[in-house]
Structures are given as structure tokens and as C-alpha cells.
Amino acid sequence: MMSENELSLSELESLARQENVHGKTVDCLLALQSDDEEVRTWAAEVLSGSVEPTADEEEEMAGLLETVLYEGEDGESWSPLASDQLYWTATMLGRLPQIDASTAKVLQELADTSADALASAAKRARSVLGRLGK
């Protein structure tokens, strides 16, 4: 099932070959929840390389982080896909030169989680907050 703005495999492959891709961070983060493993692999590839998040994507990234974090909180269970998505969202927020207080607050909630499933995402959130001096 593809959402309206989910990137196709060919779009992701094309983005992976580009440098300094702007305005696609959130789409790539959303693609990490795709049912298609190849789409997820390429999304991670783009996120690890060519995507440069922009300040105007911060709010949407923070919203995604919050949504995924809270969705799993009720049952204290997050799928590996959700954990991956949280890890990459924290990573992308960490590539911004600065984040606002509300974003830092959501990152702090992730950093403070003790859920085993989110250990690597929480560690990344702590490192981002440390680097940004929050």
C-alpha cells in the first residue's frame, strides 16, 4: 500500500545517485515504513548519503518522530521498522544546524526511553541533543 507521497523505487534509486537532495527528507523517512523491503533499503541509502534536511522540514520531522514514538508507547511495542524510522528521523534532525525547543523536547523523550526496541534510536537522539547543546 503506497501513500500519496511515498517515493517509488525508481525515484529513490535516482535520489541515491544525486548529491545534496533537498526537500525529500520526510518522504524518505516515510518510505522506511514501506511494505517493500527494496524501497526501505533504498530509502535508508538516500538518508545515509544524499539527503540534506532543510529547516522547513524540521516541524514535519519532529511530528513524525512524535507520532511514531507515541503510537508504540501504549503497548510499549515498536516494530523494527518504527525503530528504524525513529533512528533515521533523529539522525536527520541532527543534521540541521539548530532545532527549536519543541523539537528538542520530542528528541529528549526519545532519548529518555528505556524500551529495548528503541535502544539505538534513543542513543542517536542523545548524541544529537549533545551535539546541539540541548
Protein architecture, described:
With 134 residues, the protein is mainly alpha-helical. The chain has one domain (9-133). It contains seven helices and no strands. The chain has helices at 9-16, 25-31, 37-48, 58-73, 80-94, 101-112, 119-131. Helix 1 (9-16) packs parallel to helix 3 and helix 2 runs antiparallel to helix 3. The longest helix is centred in the middle third of the chain and has 16 residues, at 58-73. It starts with 8 loop residues before the first helix and ends with a helix.
Order of helices and strands: HHHHHHH
- Rounded mean pLDDT is 92
| Estimated share of beta-strand residues | under 5%
Q: Spans of 5+ residues with little confidence (pLDDT < 50)? A: none
Q: Label the overall shape.
A: globular
- Described by its quaternary structure, the protein is single chain
Task: Please outline the major beta sheet.
Answer: none
Protein name: HEAT repeat domain-containing protein
